[in-house]
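Reopening closed ticket. The problem is back. First fold of the pair:
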Amino acid sequence: MAHTNNHIVIMAGGVGSRFWPMSTPDCPKQFIDILGVGRTLLQLTFDRFKDICPVENVWVVTNKKYASLVSEQLPEINKENILLEPCRRNTAPCIAYVSWRIKSKDPKANVVVTPSDHIVTDTDEFRRVIKSCLKFTAGTDAIVTLGMTPTRPETGYGYILADLSASSPRNREIYRVDSFREKPDLQTAEEYIKHKNYLWNAGIFVWSVSTIVNAFRVYSPAISKLFESMLDVYGTSQEQDLIDKRYQECENISVDYAIMEKVEEIFVCPANFGWSDLGTWTSLLMKTNHDLYGNTAIGENIKFFDSHNCIVHTIGEKKVVVQGLDGYIVAENQGSLLVCKLSEEQRIRQFAEE
């Protein structure tokens, strides 16, 4: 039985520019069936939380222009639970808005905040960990973040340095955070993974709504004042107009900088459920089934000859043949075709803009 004070917040406003041409500003990666499984990343995120809270406690924060995509893909969610940002302002304003909105409806709410474009391969373990963390935050004024056990020296993720010397007396799986570390260079990442106490920062947070609202009041008073001042319009017909007018006043800042790095009572739950943030084509190649030669095909009728370690994503094509390539991305979407070395994928954002 899902707990009635549990709420799930799915952040779905990103533009996914590193996945061009599959991901475009009109239809970013969270709205695409990237894995070829019949469900988009947003839908898979929603599915993972099925028995954690009632569906009326699921919230999605997205950009105004994706409103109809969210409604189409998640018809189960109440329209008023889809919060629309008029402009992009990073994760702190996004989380503040939905936190005050939830608090106005359920002051006892216990909340999980998750990105919409990550994947998890072991959903049973994921649910177990989330429930364990929710139980912890329901009885404390702590913020819990999930830390993934690293499997490689990844330079694309931030890291959490955990104090593993003693777990919390209330929950044996939860430890204090020593510090957050920015995305490292390769040498630093290699150092990190020699130690058990460095974890990948998955950007998934668990807290009670009163804890996060208080944290904004203390550490981000300007953002806090803005959303506090709208208390009497949440859930009314004036809410969107006021958000449209005032949201842009918020500082463009991540919740990590605004809150996480400053808070005293902050904990991490080390976890292992086959997580990836699917930030890059390489991460998709690593998370999908490949043939004996390391090739991944997503789409109909894709044939490889003399090719190794390639990823081909051509959902709309009748037939695709790739010969003689090693370590390449081949991706087609709506008349745009990308053929790019995997080793040069950090340039895709620039190619897309040109």
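Second fold of the pair, where the issue appears:
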Amino acid sequence: MLEDHTTTASSPTEWPTAYPQGYAVVDVETTGLARDDRIISAAVYRLDARGEVEDHWYTLVNPERDPGPVWIHGLTSDVLEGAPLFRDVAEEFAARLDGRVLVAHNAVFDWQMIAREYARAQREAPVRQRLCTIALSKELGLPLPNHKLESLAAHFGVVQQRAHHALDDARVLAEAFRPSLRAAAAGGVRLPLLECRPLTEWTDRPAPRIGRQAGGPDGGFGTYRPGTWRPSRKRPACPHPNPGRYEDGKRLKQGMRVAFSGDTSVERELLEDRAAEAGLHVATSLSRLTSLLVTNDPDSGTSKVVKARQFGTPVVDEAAFGQLLRDVEPADG
């Protein structure tokens, strides 16, 4: 049983009746962040209505392609080659999710990856709601230095053993979620639940197949280390004109200049890759021409945040940006 690291002695006697009846704390490791990227491992901790652990489950998944940033997740082609395909684990995965709220750190990312895998398998994940622990920590006003999982874990005294390993990340999140849930219940906080809609769109562009990880005539990717896991880290220039600033409540539009500041819960390079693949211009600095600043710490004193205030540049957090990336408006013409 997981230890409870919350400062409250016990769970509230009066539990909010509107709270869900069960949770599935999920973590997936992937080949990247784009629509054609795949899940390579998945873990689920099932919790009851009050956050008590019922069981856990973990599997590797053969992505049928290059494994992506091995320096992050540590899963090589050799390790994944004999793993089951997603369609082979889809039924058992679904049984773990069925009837529960999906809980994840930056949940929009995990949900999109899971939903696309089910779409490829011509199935639908039995999930109707999700809860992002980043959003919950904001609702609770937790004094975190940033929104990384390691910071949330440290706040509750949870020890990470293998960062970016799906099973350990899910365990850490389950341990941190339980005291968060109890604090929310004790304070009568409304949980930040969002609807999970099935996805039907994805991209399966040609990618190096599993087993072509090493450099040379087969794969040509060289050794895996930060900055070299794709053929080239230098992105081509954005082909679309800048349509101007992002307006709250509207869609992002191809060509918009997007800058990032501060820590992100997923690797910055992967987040920038996904923005570029959506047709956005990834800016390394902030100017009056910048359409949007993405930061989880809008009150920080970084140069980009300070300039955004001066120029009136719109600001959104990482979770909101992930939502916006789902539906980017094509450039004119």
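Update: turned out to be a display glitch only; the data is intact. The beta strands are 22-30, 39-48, 53-60, 101-104, 129-132, 193-195, 257-261, 281-283, 292-295, 315-316. Confidence is low (pLDDT under 50) at residues 1-9, 209-233. Please close again.
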